[in-house]
Amino acid sequence: MSISRQRAVVVACVLIAVLATIGLVWTDNGINPTLWLSTVTALFIVLIGVLDPWMRNSASTDPSTPAQLASASTGLAQAVSAQLRAESEVRELSRPYQLPLTWSATPLVPADNPAAPDQLSGSVDAVVPWFRALPGRRVVVLGPAGSGKSSLALLLALGLLEDFGPHDQLPVLLPLGSWNPRVDLRTWITQRLREDYPALRNTELYGSYAAELLVDQRRVLPVLDAFDEIPANLRVAALQGINKAVPPATPLVLTSRPTAYGSAVSRVGPLRNASVIELDPVEQDALATVLRGSSTRVAASRWEPLLLHLRHDPDGPLAETLSSPLMVWLARTRYADVATNPTELLDPGRFPNRASIEEFLLDGLVTAVFPSLADEGARTDHLPATSDMWEPEQARRWLVFLATRMQHRELPWWELRRLVHRYWLTVLGAVSLGLMTALSVGLMVALVNRLTVLSTATVTGSIAGTLATAGTLFSTTSRGRAASASVRFGAARSMLVVSLISGTAVGLVFGALFGADPGLISGLSVAIATALRFSLGSPVELSRPPSAEATMSRDRALVGLVVLVFGIGVGSAAALLFGAGRTGMVWLGFSAGALLGFVLSAMSRNWWWFSVARAWLAMRGRLPYRLLEFLEDAHQLGVLRQVGARYQFRHARVQEHLAQASADEHGAIKPDKKP
Fold first, then answer.
1. Using CA atoms, how far apart are residues 252 and 224, in angstroms rounded to an integer?
2. According to a count of CB atoms within 10 Å of the terminal CB, is the N or C end of the chain lower?
3. Can you tell me the distance from the alpha carbon of 258 to that of 149, in angstroms, rounded to the nearest whole number?
4. Per the database entry, which stretches of residues form a coiled coil (predicted)?
5. CA distance 211 to 542
6. d(Cα 312, Cα 445) in Å, to the nearest integer?
7. What is the DSSP string of 257-322?
8. 31 vs 48: CA distance, rounded Å
9. Angle at Cα 35 formed by Cα 34 and Cα 37, nearest 5°?
10. What pTM does this model have?
């Protein structure tokens, strides 16, 4: 829903809360609290009843109109452009660090496009006009590992977005490693859009099925990155699926290593109507320009002996290594500190071949970007400072764990539970919620008995905790989720109906236990919390770039809101029952209500399960407790990259190297059981 509708609900709820509080404070002035609270409750029902049809209109099931789709496309373009621009800065794809990549036609893999050879060559400076002039605007970009395929795809998408219009096709960068070809490609793209940009579900602004229609009406230009990361046994099905989902007349970009794409082409034929190009190795002049331009004048002199060696031995192992943009970045990163000396790479005894040089550069990445706290005074030429400092041994251990457990090179924060055995996580989370339920219900029963019959409170709390644990276990299983998903009826879309049912249920329970006034204030508090959660549960800003912190903070804020309202409601009930002067009983009521509100709100939120998984992994030393801060630091330093709200390793070679380090050091880190 729009901000105006959210604000209307918030204003109504705040007004009711203020009026209820005024009645409780002025009871000594002759105001009957029961009559006052009954009047305020009736006013709340009237206000929500007036707002409810307006709110439900925002959840219309009518398909998106052309104007709504154009608005969604424009907002999505702003979000994608902002993220890609930030990502290009993190990956240092702009001058003076940008390598002038070039490409040309390749005879190694057949192409299904009659483009002339002179149309299949170009450079990164003119990638956008080159792509637009390409017949059919369908191209397969080939190159070995670390040749710059993903960087070229990012720069192409960013360039196409610079003059984007509402009726243009929206380039979206999509890593194929997480796609299972058994799922239709269009369905997968739609799912990615809805997960990475949840504001597309805003039916008031963009109508229903906005993401689906953007894909079905060919308003999205798929930039499919890393075809080679699809499992080998699924690549034939993947190429067939791409041909089926994206017609020959629809623009498309696909990147892959030559062997992976060529093996699939040999069995089912090439991508229809697509040209095929291959990235060229980095030229020595371009390498020299980048190494000198990314350093100060004094620091640049350190590279001269190495550059001189490359000119005398252009076919040697060092020249082969530095023909890859990935290895160029690793070399600049490792030797960014002016105290280091890149001429050590010239030692033939230590580095007899290309593989040894590459392993050396990969092995020094973590130490270079996460300097020791003892070296805090050191400064580098081009690396940004982190928001906090992490010891290199810790950072390496955490990154090794992620490399061994991260599926498809991706880590969505809401799926951190995948890194923990699902049974342990489910039991741990359910038992935690059950204990909090037992404590909150026990405290409430103790309030009823004025702390005189604690045995009853203990038994009642234990029963409630057991039921909460069992309910959480059921709801988190696949069978339980399927059952809850099937119980969706029209009344569940009504803010009025849901608020009245929840508020009445809690009000009757508290009324039976405490009396009419506590029952009214408790039921009203729950109804207000439900209405606020109903209205604030979805994002409205599509144009803002997605981030892990932003999507998680929305979940966390909703939980905090419900905790506060429940706590105030039960605390107010305790004040009515025992008198405001007995602050101990009031705080006891507030604590009980806050705990109950936390349980009811956290049970279905991804933030809770993320927190449980993070705490478990932090206790075992697998990951830091401040996980998102660490991931963002690693992202800013170039070890990770961000796609949507997900983190990935910068390159598959980086992840493979760290995973191999885990295998070599199997005694230091024992992986958990497979989730």
1. 8
2. C
3. 11
4. none
5. 12
6. 85
7. -HHHHHHHHHHH-PPBT-EEEEEPPPPHHHHHHHHHHTS-HHHHGGGHHHHHHHHH-TTSHHHHHT
8. 25
9. 65
10. 0.79
